[in-house]
Backbone:
């Protein structure tokens, strides 16, 4: 096993930590505060951020939508260039953070910055960014990934760079009290599936990473139903927030042959049908695991035993029970698991397959998920 572990994001976790922005951002910085549709104004987070930045030069750019779009973000790039912005502060959920990462890379980019996404053009410079997270889900606060949509072409695509890790992230669980149940459930499912994409793989030998992954899955299993039911004691809020960060902050994936097929398929469903990111994952993961259970057999049996306490019956029965428990868990936290639950026709399976075919994409840890196999597994999730 060979890997380099480097996570440059400094995290300030806990109630009251928003005030620490002041010590993180240079006093003379020209700051652009980016945010979404207004939740930070309604829950008091915006006021806390501005209080921490009193006396600083702060411009604002709002309106970054869920599944952030090129069409919106390019306006922020123009604003940042015109105003000579040299520090970005993203305040919100994964969409605001992801969108701000692209702004950070796009502002100094020479040429068409959409190439960073569409052609994976190398990112050689980026404006520094910080994050105040208000929705535990994506792990974007402590990784170098972003997913950006372009409405004009119907695409939803990924880019990543070590240069867009946030310099710092504020994780105050109190900011999550204003989330509606749908977003809480989405966050739990997203974090759970992030772990699965790095854990439910066939190559053995990652003993420490397996145990770390199982710890996060067990924590989500323990806390998820309480959080989704609206229980807001500090231990629940804090546990969910820290679990989501740990699920995708590069630690558990060190040296692991990762999968990410569920996400790749899910992004296509969001682009085509507009489902929330986590809703697509709840539909795809169980179908994918059933489809790939031959390849992933050993790890699925470990998952059945260590995460769902399933020790009796044939190996096949234990694997099926573990997948069924996973589905039931997603539904319990309020995220349905069939396409029909979202009024999406099974015909979307062939549309997704066609897009993958056009791009020449082969998915899965073994690159054996051809467009035809993706179509078949999606039809099984009708
Ligand atoms: O826009 P505002 O008004 O802020 O409202 C948001 C939005 O409507 C609301 N919200 C956020 N915090 C809130 C709140 N409402 C009340 N109280 C709060 N404290 O929640 C709604 C959804 O927000 P969004 O940021 O879209 O959700 P999430 O954090 O789930 O992010 C989803 C995006 O992240 C991408 C997804 O593809 C999707 O585009 N991902 C990013 C990843 C990464 N960077 O590593 C990995 C993930 O797998 C994922 O692909
Ligand atoms: Zn995700």
Residues:
């Amino acid at each position: 096993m060979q890997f380099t572990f480097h996570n440059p994001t400094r995290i300030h976790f806990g109630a009251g930590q928003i005030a620490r922005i002041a010590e993180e951002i240079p006093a003379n910085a020209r700051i652009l505060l980016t945010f979404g549709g207004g939740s930070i104004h309604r829950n008091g987070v915006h006021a806390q951020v501005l209080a921490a930045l009193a006396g600083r030069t702060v411009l604002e750019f709002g309106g970054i939508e869920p599944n952030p779009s090129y069409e919106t973000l390019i306006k922020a790039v123009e604003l940042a260039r015109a105003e000579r912005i040299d520090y970005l502060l993203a305040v919100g959920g994964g969409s605001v953070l992801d969108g701000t990462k692209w702004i950070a890379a796009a502002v100094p980019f020479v040429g068409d910055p959409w190439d960073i996404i569409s052609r994976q053009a190398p990112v050689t410079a980026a404006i520094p960014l910080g994050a105040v997270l208000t929705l535990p889900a994506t792990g974007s606060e402590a990784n170098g990934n972003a997913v950006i949509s372009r409405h004009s072409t119907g695409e939803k695509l990924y880019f990543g760079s070590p240069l867009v890790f946030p310099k710092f992230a504020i994780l105050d669980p109190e900011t999550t009290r204003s989330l509606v149940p749908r977003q809480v459930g989405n966050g739990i499912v997203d974090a759970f599936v992030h772990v699965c994409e790095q854990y439910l793989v066939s190559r053995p030998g990652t003993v420490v990473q397996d145990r770390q992954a199982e710890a996060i899955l067990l924590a989500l299993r323990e806390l998820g139903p309480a959080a989704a039911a609206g229980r807001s004691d500090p231990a629940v809020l804090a546990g969910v927030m820290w679990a989501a960060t740990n699920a995708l902050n590069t630690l558990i994936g060190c040296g692991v042959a990762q999968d990410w097929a569920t996400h790749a398929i899910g992004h296509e469903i969001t682009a085509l049908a507009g489902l929330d990111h986590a809703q697509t994952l709840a539909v795809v993961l169980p179908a994918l695991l059933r489809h790939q259970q031959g390849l992933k057999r050993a790890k699925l049996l470990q998952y059945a035993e260590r995460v769902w306490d399933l020790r009796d019956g044939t190996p096949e029965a234990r694997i099926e029970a573990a997948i069924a428990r996973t589905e039931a868990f997603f539904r319990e936290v309020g995220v349905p698991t069939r396409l029909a639950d979202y009024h999406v026709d099974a015909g979307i399976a062939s549309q997704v397959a066609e897009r993958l075919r056009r791009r020449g994409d082969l998915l899965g840890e073994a690159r054996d998920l051809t467009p035809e196999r993706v179509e078949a597994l999606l039809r099984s999730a009708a």
